[in-house]
């Protein structure tokens, strides 16, 4: 009986020891086990994307937006009031400089002109006779001067009537294409009435502006590239005018370029994308703009050196939409962190997930 009691106690003791070992293994051992390669456990290194710095060619381009402008554009208005008796205006038709487009009724003015011309002819007939009489002393100087004055007055009246007749004619001030027409034959128009639009779009102009920091890098005669919505290919244009001052409201410099439009495919008022090529840098250290951390009066990037994060201050130059040129602080072969910047700190170990 005693032996059975001893066996039962031994069984209980063995079961208790086994339970203690199991509890220690699963609940205490993970905290007691040392981390491989170190004395304590810790989080895995942060993964980041990086780029190996190397020389690249940097095309210093300025991107701007502009508007196509007709080379010449005018609204044809009537200088006089009257009835339209002739109308040589077809919308969309080409006209030549000086071509008669609109004629108003000038019958009364033509009658006045005929009357004055007849009177002038009378004075011209008497002119030689009056001169002969004056030379012979038959008439005085005063009488001869009065005759000359009357003749000059008739000539002035003729010039005035001719000027009034000219106002009844609307001629093309330059060669171009007729736009929309706002009158019809036989209509009575008042002074300053709008007749039609006349446009000369060959060559076409493009007006655009650039930030003031580039003001000293562009000049008249420089070339630009223009892209227009309805044109599949880029167009080459030449700068023909540069504003003499910066626009203080926008801090930009206004420019105007000229491009050919022989087939009239370009339409005034259209939106244009402009690209200006400045100096090209053949050996440049280019990094993504997203990798630069701006600080007060400084710029900083993060490099990976010996597996840990190392901050470096840099100086920069020209930039494009997504790249910036580094002039000081980096060297060829440096490993630059380009993604994951916000989750790293100096001295932190990192693991390179991807290298560009």
Written description of the protein model:
This protein is α+β, with helices and mostly antiparallel strands. The protein folds into 4 domains: 1-38; 47-60 and 282-355, conserved putative lor/sdh protein from methanococcus maripaludis s2 fold (Beta Barrel); 63-70 and 198-276, Elongation Factor Tu (Ef-tu), domain 3; 80-195, Beta Barrel (OB fold (Dihydrolipoamide Acetyltransferase, E2P)), CATH 2.40.50.100. The chain is built from 3 helices and 19 strands. Strands 2-9-12-11-10-13 form a 6-stranded antiparallel barrel. Strands 6-5-3-8 form a 4-stranded antiparallel β-sheet, with no helix packed on it. Strands 18-1-19 form a 3-stranded mixed β-sheet, with no helix packed on it. α2 (107-136) runs antiparallel to α3.
Helical percent range?
10-25%
* CATH secondary-structure class of the largest domain: Mainly Beta
The named CATH superfamily of the largest domain: RNA polymerase II/Efflux pump adaptor protein, barrel-sandwich hybrid domain
- From the alpha-carbon coordinates, what is the Rg to the nearest angstrom? 45 Å
**Mind summarizing the main beta sheet?**
6 strands, antiparallel, barrel
Level-2 CATH architecture of the largest domain = Beta Barrel
CATH names the topology of the largest domain as OB fold (Dihydrolipoamide Acetyltransferase, E2P)
**Structural domain count:** 4
Number of helices: 3
Oligomer state equals single chain
Q: How confident is the prediction overall: mean pLDDT?
A: 84
Output the helix-strand order. HEEEEEHHEEEEEEEEEEEEEE
How much of the sequence is in beta strands?
35-45%
| Order of neighbouring strands in the sheet with most strands | 2-9-12-11-10-13
Count every beta strand, where a strand is a DSSP E run of 2 or more residues. Answer: 19
Unreliable runs, pLDDT <50, ≥5 residues?
A: 1-6, 26-39
Approximate shape: elongated
Distance between the termini: 82 Å
